[in-house]
Design brief:
The complex is a heterodimer of chains A (about 270) and B (about 160).
Chain A lengths: L5 H20 L30 H25 L9 H25 L10 H15 L7 H23 L6 H25 L32 E8 L5 E6 L16
Antiparallel strand pairs in A: 1-2
Helix pairs in contact in A: 2-3, 2-4, 2-5, 3-6, 4-5, 5-6
Chain B lengths: L11 H25 L6 H25 L9 H8 L7 H23 L5 H24 L4 H4 L14
Helix pairs in contact in B: 1-2, 1-3, 1-4, 2-5, 4-5
Classes of the chains: A mainly alpha (about 270), B mainly alpha (about 160).
Chain lengths: ~270, ~160
Amino acid sequence: MNRYSRRHVLRLSGLGAAGVLLAACGKQAGVEESKNVKSVGVLPETDGLASVEVTDIVLLRTAASLEYNAIDTYDAALGLGVFSGAFAAAGDIAKRLRDDHRGHADAINGLVTKLGGQPFTCSNPRLDEIYISPALALITDTDTEDPARDVLVLAHALENLAAQTYQSVVTLLSDKALREAAMTIGQDEARHAAVLARALQPGVQFILPSINADTGKPNIAAVPGAFGPLTPILVTVGPVNADGTRSSLTLETPSLNSLAYDSMLCA
Amino acid sequence: MTLPAAITPTTKADRALLAFANAAEFAARDVYEVAASVSAFGTEEQVVLVGFHDHHRAAAQALAGMAGSAATNERSDAVFNAFRGRVVGNDKSAIYDALRELENTLASTHLSLVGRLEGTGAAALVASILNVQARQAATLALLAGRPFAEALTNGAAPLTIGTGT
């Protein structure tokens, strides 16, 4: 008769496997300890990122940077000389909105100075790189059918982005007076967006959200809902691609990788 | 990396402010109900007025949710009576102007609330309502045939908190 049952054999083999695993994880004689994560080979030393703080000053400097993004975009749009025909009046709107953004930038930087910070007097480089430069490159492509309309679409998106940004910092700013100051400008941006939406889609039927019957995509709406959204903003501009579609960019409010931290300086 | 504090809770004083806004929003809803029934408006225009009516109702309900038992869920008669008589008749531009003044008054009121609320969650809600009402005011200015520059400004004074006037 066999001395070991099937259960005994399985239990013993399990213990043996666990022992081998523990031995493999333990220190081994003659092997130098490394502070790197356990790995094959040796990883290079890293300095790590500088410690940064998201303060009221940083949030306001970021808002100022967005104002300069808008100023630069309107300047670029006006420089294109595209506002004619159906969009002849849009040139006056663009000039007024650009001037409003100059006022906003000064007001925000005034607050930054009052808080002891360094004013931020240039556009946000990250947003330039990922949103505005690619969008302007598409708009100025020679195959773009209606650059005037596309410029207004981009401006409308930037105004929405600005309105969302001011709205979003309300929960982050530590001072009530700063929240009110931010929303004083935020509501201005919302008005800008509504005026541009009406310039793009003058019909009464486009004030509230609607769907384009041809494309199945949402039309631009002056008043897109009952509450100010904080959702990504889709911008479709530029020439029609070979597959019949147009390029789209998705704009989002500044995040940790696009804030104007204290150490960031304008060139 | 140091991040700002998490959302701060609503205080008792906040709830009183939110209840005030709740009553003002229900008044706006009722003003739009009167305006939307004016026969001078076509179907598309009525759709817009009903849409704005619904936005004010949604705002009132959201404010009630945050004000809790402090919310009366009844309109401010002072606000309603101040505008009701101006949104009747056949002059559509005059009605749009009155509605724009209502929106701008509420926008100014909400802006002052953002500067008074302690809780950041409540301030964020009011800020999101403010941004929509600023859009509605701008749109109404353009519907009234005003120059676009008038759509960009708000000269209305806020309501006196506590009295609704």
